[in-house]
Amino acid sequence: MITSSQNAKLKLVRLLNGRPKDRRAENAFVAEGVRLVEDALAADWPIRFALFDETLSERGRRLVEKLKAKGYEVEEVAAPLMKPISETETPQGILAVLKLPADQLPLTNYQFILIPDQIRDPGNLGTLLRTAAAAGVEAALIPPETTDPFAPKVVRAGMGAHFRLPVVSMGWEEIRRVSESAKLMVVLADMGGVPCWQADLTRPLALIVGGEAEGASAPARELATEAISIPMPGGMESLNAGVAGSVLMFEVMRQRR
Asked: What is each CA distance from 208 to 122, 126, 256, 257, in whole angstroms?
């Protein structure tokens, strides 16, 4: 059992819960909670180690046994030491340190890609990724001005989406190359665009959803070939990025079905 706050594993978790550059340097991130660790295990995601404490539920203890059976390193932590490394208000007593995915998009004939541009709120980015996984999006390309998709709050809000679709950080030139090689129509969510129900979204496309405060960036607008909007007869000026992106992704799914 880990009983010292200076333990190397606890220090690593604290580091990974902090800055993006530390996650990149360690090539790792943290998934916290029974559901997320279950999802990582089910996806055969590379797990460096897992930590748990005595407050873990029966479901969590079954998960610990599955992790051990798979040969992963699992250690118990004294409960008073687990709470300080937790990023949740009500810790579930388990977390895992996972390997970051390669910053490379798997080669395939993409039909539907999400580009969350200048999304700085972790909850909104996590919501967009969760919806993307639910709506059949095949990959999420993360431009430079968007918050780190593997930050703890984004991973929690994604509810397992990170283990279901490629989430790849890349610059705008690389995003352009991916879009052009896959022959994607690049569609920008914009208040001045064509109403989404009138647009043809059945073609292979990349959907750009701009940030909460400033909207889409200049590189995003340069890349976009079309713009679509969400009609709002109720008179509201806008929706937040997570909601707007979710509406549009499911409209793409609806048209294709």
From this structure: 17, 15, 18, 21
Three-class DSSP category at 189: strand
Q: Residue 194's closest CA among 233, 243, 227, 168?
A: 227
Q: How many CA atoms lie within 13 A of 141 on its CB side?
A: 25
pLDDT (0 to 100) of residue 215: 85
Instruction: Among 2.60.40.10, 3.30.420.40, 3.40.390.10, 3.40.1280.10, name the CATH number for the domain at 112-256.
Output: 3.40.1280.10
DSSP character at residue 106: P
The whole-angstrom distance between residue 244's C-alpha and the CA centroid of its chain comes to 17
Nearest to 249 by CA among 119, 139, 88, 95: 139
pLDDT on residue 104: 83
Question: What pLDDT sits at residue 132?
Answer: 98
Query: Can you tell me the distance from the alpha carbon of 242 to that of 116, in angstroms, rounded to the nearest whole number?
Result: 10
Q: Which CATH architecture has domain 8-99?
A: 2-Layer Sandwich (3.30)
Angle in degrees, CA 100, 104, 107, rounded to 5: 130
Q: Angle at Cα 205 formed by Cα 202 and Cα 207, nearest 5°?
A: 115
Cross-sheet strand order for the sheet of 185-195:
167-169, 139-142, 112-116, 205-209, 185-195, 226-229
Regions in the chain scoring below 70 on pLDDT: 237
CB atoms within 10 A of CB 76: 16
